[in-house]
Amino acid sequence: MSDNVLDDLEPIITPIRQALIGVGLPLRILEAEWGPGQIEISLDPLEDMAPADAVVILRAAVKQVARRLGLLASFMAKPALPNVYSSGWHLHQALFDTATGKNAFAEAGVLMSDSGLHFVGGLLEHARAATAFSNPTLTGYKRLNANPLAPNRVVWSCDNKGAMCRLVGGMGDPATHLENRSGEPAANPYLYMGSQIVAGLDGIANKIDPGPPLANPYEQTQRPRMPSSLEEAVDALAASTMFREALGDEFIDHYVTVRRHEIGRFQAYVTDWEHREYFELF
Q: In this structure, are 139 and 58 located in the same domain?
């Protein structure tokens, strides 16, 4: 990346950096990304509810700083802007034993512990339904299945950024963790993170085998596809017995109803594309 890009964004990056540190967030990375005006932000690991709280504070702080500078900050996955590059929310997650304080995913001499493998199994088993939480907007699915480094198959791999679930570390590394690369920046952090915990723990409880990690994730045509639309993801969630048992029918039915109402409003709207395609032709 050209130094000029970084220099152009410095007038906005510096006040955002100062604001995030000022509100107490453990900022790790704040830098220019590939797309015009696109910024990557990463935080150090946090525990329990703290990471979800941090995302809420982060998004509010970034938007407020931008507004005061006469700019607009958006967490939309794929804005309709020239030369745009889609934005994802890559959620890193690990599980620690409360008794020993050790990483429950790491085990010397093997890729992952049994608990880690079964956690992965749960993430893969429930991935299509969980996508309704990780990608709750219609636009999020214009990133999935369509862009480099965004997953299109329910696959896990070792340190491959094309996979939905990426293993980082392994072989006893105490920093071993998983990265779910399916999410979009607009996701509700409590639901996104909560759905991952629920799915992973179900994998551990039922000893779900994820199979071996697969190289070349875009070529794994035997694996299920990621949902191609919000409607497809919501239908998968509505049919999920596991999420209904874990989160309750009342919540799932409410969430599904809200998302389907949003889908219906979009389907009733005549887009610019439709107008250009059909108005003069017919």
A: no
Amino acid at 130: A
Predicted confidence pLDDT, tens digits, the chain (282 residues)? 567 777 888 999 999 999 999 999 999 999 988 888 999 999 999 999 999 999 999 999 999 999 999 999 999 999 999 988 899 999 999 999 999 999 999 999 999 999 999 999 999 999 999 999 999 999 999 998 776 789 999 999 999 999 999 999 999 999 999 999 999 999 999 999 999 999 999 999 999 999 999 999 999 999 999 999 999 999 999 999 999 999 999 999 999 999 999 999 999 999 999 999 999 999
Beta carbons of 166 and 176 less than 8 angstroms apart:
no
**136 plus 199 within the same structural domain:** yes
Domain that holds residue 22: 1-73
179 vs 123: CA distance, rounded Å: 11
Domain boundary among 73, 104, 126: 73
Residue 181 in contact with residue 166, Cβ under 8 Å?
Answer: yes
Residues 58 and 170 reside in one and the same domain: no
Do 220 and 259 have their domain in common?
Answer: yes
In a domain, 129, yes or no: yes
Structural domain count of the chain: 2
Q: What is the C-alpha to C-alpha distance for residues 170 and 113, in angstroms, rounded to an integer?
A: 9
Do 42 and 101 belong to one domain? no
